[in-house]
Structure formats: structure tokens, C-alpha cells
Amino acid sequence: MSWPQAAERRAGQGAADRWLAALLWAAALFSSGIVFVIVSTVAVEAIPFLREIGLTRLVSDEGWYPTYGRFQMTAMLIGSLVVAAGACVLALPAGVVSAVYLAFYAGRWSGRIYQRLLEILAGIPSVVLGFWGLTTVVPLIAKVEQPGTSLLAASFVLTLMILPTVALIAFARIAAVPDAYYRGAIGLGFSRWQAIRQVVLPAARPGIATGCILAFARALGETMAVVMVAGNIVQVPTSVFQPVRTLSANIALEVGYAMDVHRSSLFASATILVLAVLVIFAVGRWVAREDAHV
Amino acid sequence: MLGYRIKLAAVALPLLALTVSAIQAKADETRLLLTGSSTIAPIAEEIAHLYEEKNQDVRIDIQTGGSTKGVIDQRRGLNDIAMVSRRLKPSESDLTAHTFALDGLAMIVHEDNAVEDLSSDDIRAIYTRKKTDWSDFGDDGGEIIIINKSEGRATLDLFLDHFGLIPPDIKPHMVIGENEQGIKAVAGNRSAIGYVAISTAFYDAEHGVAIKLVGLDGVLATVENVANGSYPAIRQLNLVTAGEVSKTTQAFLDFAQSEAVHEILDTFHVVAPSR
């Protein structure tokens, strides 16, 4: 809503509206305040680390042996990004295909059932998916190449987790494309598939891109399932079969046991994770806006 | 609108009643909070049940998070007793350890593995990747997959202490957190080797999980050998307190170190220290 519009609406409001507005303001302030408190607590806990060890050693140290005074985190940051990117690469096509199926090809009942299935998939607790990954997916991958717990396993389990997000957002975006586009395309002699591919999907693209960014951020923060299937070795992977450790997995593995600088270093890594998510959201918005101009 | 209100009341009133009764219950009950080692937690849980049966006015809550978290909580006054599955460190001399059981660290492999016993030197060679294939030990499992624990864990500390290694020496293929995660990983991988608490490993191996406990330096990884002290890699299970403790806390500490809990210790394959 633009400002003149808001002003017009304000002109006609009564006491009840003013109360509601105050209440909404308070609610908004409260929720944004909590975000601020969380982020600043995490950042403050990271200060002892920055003071004693410093930012440069996050890059220059040889490996991550916090109880032994080595604090290199670049491998884990790369691990986080690669695992999440892998999940998006797998989830994007699957999600868009699911959405197209739901919007154009599914029958009344099959469509409903498929949508419910996606919602159930979204509702499975991540620790359960992780457990399933460890006992089912990992041994399968280990048959191809040891040790099985790997970048591939982590990305695959994450794919299942973000697929519903990607599919349902893409479906909503496709449904929001004006019906006239599709009918117009059909009227011009396009086949159904041509109309979908060349008219509907391009029109829905900015929304789908935003969905992807949301899914990427979720994948970046996901922890429990990744701890169980990623293998958690601190290294830059050179193949999808190698184990990796993500920043979030590292925090989950060590925070209960960490003291002093080690503990503070985990808060530093949490701060980095938060900043990474912020940057990704910013990039996402920019991409979506650029795309909308096309 | 009325229907909506009735529904809301139907949800809210029982919740309110629950809260009130919980607050009332708290008033005439003494509560004890134990936090710390995930190895001790299930044992402490059973001991607590038994103790609550005999002392109806006491409620005991148990939370995990690792030995070190227990120590941190104890120092901050966030718990009554810390569960610590290792010896106290020199830096923790402000605390008092009440050892109620002994447990060992077991090397575990897949049940199809032919290896029955490894020496401490073998373990060192495997974990530093000086020996990388099971054929070095008479098994056809191929490349050895090394499973290590994440930094800070009590089992890792015991492992490093016993084998005289430091973290950067170890070149693992997989890093795990909880004992059960390690056991699942080894059960699912024919070529893996890992280490977990004997108590957990023994229990799971007996209950059909596809793992095998390997002997260490010619001593079988069994409960008897932990009890008689002949097994090399042993650790203490401690209940830890700081300074003066309350009457309730002292009573529970005494109970946990009495004969009354031996049956429970047996079911967990840990043993009471001889006094």
C-alpha cells in the first residue's frame, strides 16, 4: 500500500481502528524486537572469540580443532553452502514438475491426494528424516562409494525437506498466473505443454525464484537431519561422495560440550550463519525484482 | 460466535486446570534436577524411578546435554546434581565426584567383521591412517571406515587419554555425536570401526543390532572385565556436586551409591565400584 492510500484510510477511522492499529504496532514491535534480541545475544557471545582469536584465523588456521586451538571455519561455510545448493538443485526441478502436475494434469482426487502427501512430507520431523537417511539412504550410497555419509546423502535428505516448500509455492504462483494467459495461448494454437512452458512458467518465474531462496535459507539452517547423514568431517568436498560438516551441524555437535573460547567460537559461527542467510534473502529479493522487470 | 467461545473455553480451561495443579503439586513436592552425560541419563532415570517410588514427595527430572554441560549447570546453580561420565579434570577441583558406577569404552565393528581383538597400537595405527585396510587384520572388509566422536564428548576424551592421541592426529571418515548414532553407523557399514560406551554397545549387540564388540589388548570387552578392573579403557560414572548439598540431594546421592541400585546397574551393564 502506498502512503497516500494509507492516509486516505486513516482519515475515516474510528476509535476501534486506532486501538487495533496500536495493537498491531505493539505486536510488530514485539516480534521484531525478539529477532533483534536473539541476533544481538548471539553476536555478543561471539565477542570473546573475536577478541582473543580474531577474524583472520577463521580463514588462516589449519583445520577445525577448537579444543586444540585451531579455528578455521571456511571449510564448514563452504560445506553449508554446497549442501544447501545441492538440495536446491535437486528440489527445483522436482518441485516445479510437481506444481505443474498439480495445476494442469492432476485429476480432482489424485491432485488432492498428492497435495496432502506433500503437506505430510513437510510435516515429518527432521530427526525422523535424518534417522531414515542414516539407516536407509547412507548404506545405499556406501555401496557405490564409502563411507556413505556424504554431501550427496545430506543434500538428498534436505531435498525431501524443502521439496514441499518449493512445490507448494510454485503451485500457488502458477495458480496466480491469470487464466487468460493460458487460454490465450491455447487459443493461439499452442499445445498444453507449449502453453505451460512458454507462457505460464515464465510468468510464474519470479515467485518460483523467491520460493527457491526461501527453501535455500531453510536448507542452510537445517541441522538435525544433516548431523545424522553428512558424516561431519571438516573438509572442502571434492566429490559428492565425500563427507562434509555444515556450520549448523557443527554447532549442534559441539555446543553442549564447549567451554570458553570454543563456546564463543560456535557463537561466532552462528553469527556468520545468520549473516549468510541475510545476504541470501537480500540477493533473493533483488533477483525476484530484476526478474519481475523482464 | 458463541460456538467459537465454547470451543475456546473447552481448550483453555483444562490447560488452566493443568497449570494450576502443576503449580500446586510443586508446592508440596521437593524437586531434584539432574543434567549432563547422555551415557548416565538412562541409568539415572531408572534409579530416579526407584527412588521416587520409595519417596513419594520427591520428583526427579533428568536432562541430557553432555558431561561438560552438567558441570557448567552445576557451577551456575542450574541443577542439583551433574551427571559426569569421566574423571573430574584438574580444573574442576572445586567439585565433588560421587562415583556410583564404572563403564568402559568399547571398540565396535560390524558383526560380519572377522576381527576379534585389537591392540592399543592397532587402534592408534587405524585412527591415524597408518593402517587403512582390514586385510592388515585378517578381514576382507576392504578400506577401514573410521568413526570418531565430536570434540568435547566424554567418550572422545577417554579415547584420546587412553590411546595418547590428540585431535589433529585422528583422520576420521565420519564424526558422530550420541552413542546410538555411532552404533547405527557401524551397524550400517561393513567396513566401519567406532567406539562407544561398553554399556550401550553391549546392550545393543545383545538385542540384535548388527555390531560386535572387539577385545582390547587381549581382554574381552565384557561387564565382568570392567568390574574386576582388567579391561584397559575404563571410565567413571559420577554424580557431581559443588560445596554443601541439601538434605534431599544427599539422600539421593546415598541411595545411588547403595546396594539398592545394583540390579539397575546390572541391566545397563555397568558395575558398582568396589569399596
UniProtKB/TrEMBL annotation, chain A:
Keywords associated with the record: Cell inner membrane, Cell membrane, Membrane, Phosphate transport, Transmembrane, Transmembrane helix, Transport
Protein location: Cell inner membrane; Cell membrane
Its membrane topology: Multi-pass membrane protein
PROSITE patterns xref list: ABC_TM1 (PS50928)
One of the Pfam families matching this protein, by short name: BPD_transp_1
Single GO MF annotation: phosphate transmembrane transporter activity
Role, per record: Part of the binding-protein-dependent transport system for phosphate; probably responsible for the translocation of the substrate across the membrane.
Name recorded for this polypeptide: Phosphate transport system permease protein
The species this protein was found in: Ferruginivarius sediminum
Lineage: Bacteria, Pseudomonadati, Pseudomonadota, Alphaproteobacteria, Rhodospirillales
UniProtKB/TrEMBL annotation, chain B:
The keyword Disulfide bond appears for this protein: no
Protein's UniProt name: Phosphate ABC transporter substrate-binding protein
SUPFAM superfamilies the record matches: Periplasmic binding protein-like II
Sorted UniProt keywords: Signal
Segment forming the signal sequence: 1-27
Annotated ranges, domain PBP: 28-259
Matching PANTHER family: PERIPLASMIC PHOSPHATE BINDING COMPONENT OF PHOSPHATE ABC TRANSPORTER, PHOSPHATE-BINDING PROTEIN PSTS
